[in-house]
Amino acid sequence: MTTQTMTIGRLARLALLSLGALLVLAPYIFMLSTAGKTQSEIFASSLSLIPHTWNYLANFTKAFTRVSMPMLLWNGVVVCGMILVLQVLVAVPCAYAMAKMKFRAARVMMALVMLGLLVPIHATALPLYVAFDRLSILNSYLALVAPFSISVFAIFLFLQFFRAMPDDLIHAARLDGMSELGIVARVIVPNAWPAVTAFAIFSVVAHWNDLFWPLIVVTNQAYATPPLGLLFFRAAEAGDDYGALMAATLIITLPLVLVFLLAQKSFVEGITMTGLKG
Amino acid sequence: MSMFSLRDITKSFSGNAILKGVSLEAGDGEFIAMVGPSGCGKSTLLRIVAGLDHADAGAIRINGAEVSHLPAADRNIAMVFQSYALYPHLTAGQNIAVPLAMRNLSGSQRLPLIGRFMPGQRRICADIQRQVQAMAASLKIDHLLDRKPGQMSGGQRQRVALARAMVRNPSVFLMDEPLSNLDANLRVHARGEIVDLHRRAGVPTLYVTHDQSEALSMADRVAVMIGGNLLQLASPQAIYDDPDHIEVARFVGQPRINLLASQRDADGTVSFGNLRLTSASDTIGDPRVTLGVRPEFVRLRAEGEGALATRIERLEFLGSEVIVFTKLSAIGETVLAKISPAEARGLAAGQPIGLDMDPSHVMLFAEDGRRLAAAPLKAVLREMVHG
Questions:
Q1: What is the value of ipTM here, to two decimals?
Q2: pTM attached to this predicted model
């Protein structure tokens, strides 16, 4: 592939792909540009990508000082981490049982998983809110994490992946004297890293960026996740300091971009191996 | 001393009978090859013996003890899988160590990180390492111990799988087509190795294969399984020369046996061309019988002189021998003859030729497939020749 000459077709393909990438990246590029502009330039009638006066330092200082940025990021890490760990802990044994063990309820469970995939969080948000309120666990990590600890999507994804694992491997493990839990821990999980990585990206991206649920259960800034923090930030600034807001947004999206770039290879692997096009 | 036996094992999947009462017994250190066409239930039987599947009925005994209700891990059975089933994330050495670690280390000693601080763990681990090394040395795979299965060739993986199975001194050894993923040259070589290994270990072995030449060349006794029934369990020689059932005769032997439909007279005599056979007269029921004769006992002759009139369809040259496909002019049946290249000189497709069968090697099968006792009718034969 690397030695391929630049043919017309290849050039056209490249141009098309670049155009698509540019279209998708445009908002991000615009954000990058706005984060460096002064207030007056943002509202100027002329549009330019490169700021006239570089105001990055001032905007970033504001972003870091007006709200507790480290606390927001820390909350994001704690919530996303807890959600991910719980989801994997629950979904892996569940998917293993459904993929490799024969029992009567397997079909019913499969139907339930499918059903679960169809129900959005918005449908269950209100009952959950009421329940959490009664339990008086609003404004806590528990309220942020609990509704997502069981992910039917994770079960579904792992199920597809585990089904492709050879039965002989599990038979060999049983003959070697492993218990079913031992098989999950020693054979399944070490060989399921691509699927786990792929799921981790889906999960972390979804919950890092989630505004809906934190907005419902958190009113205390101490438990605010990054997107919710941005909301507080905007409210605090009366919605006019877009330069600083963009700088804050940039800070919040940066960890995800970095993680994705690092895990890109195994992410693509996991998706192709599960036969699921993201 | 180690032996095992199966008694009346039956199994059906959603109404389909896969195993219809299979019984067999393996003596101390005996190598039994189970052979049959795909779908005959041999792999199912193996999985039942291993404890990976449960029989509907029947008993499995290892060294006299009933194990049918024990889980796979407690039967002390080792199995080599067709796909080898090595753990892809572990090195060869770690793969071989797994069964030992699972058996010799307690649950707390196996825990990651904490495990190494448990009392006695270090001594047991060193012991396991020593056994792995010894096993690897005896299979000549010591240089592969640090490689992962993905970095090994098929033959190397197969040896690692053998090592993993043998390292814990099982009381029964099961093999599920362990050679079918190797290329032809390696397969013949590996046959010899497995037989050697089996002789050294002296563990009774049940070896499943669909390759009859593997079964005949490796086993002490061959079990032919067809359609969920174990039709015959006998030495390779007996299976080939003296099949109990028409299906066994049909399945074993390359090129396949010639089977010719015929009739039996009221006095039990069967005639085919100039061939006269007599069968035990007390078994007369259905007059329809089938004659079976292996291609090496079919001789080519000049036309006439009482030989069966045939025409050569084609010749297959196999190096040390030539297979002649002939068509019987009278009934249009194809008969195969195995002859030496010297005899085949001058033969060409389309040529008419006479056939003759060695009467002492012709087998007789009843309509239901059972073998019938039969003997050549010498008197008649002599009469024919002289008359």
A1: 0.81
A2: 0.78
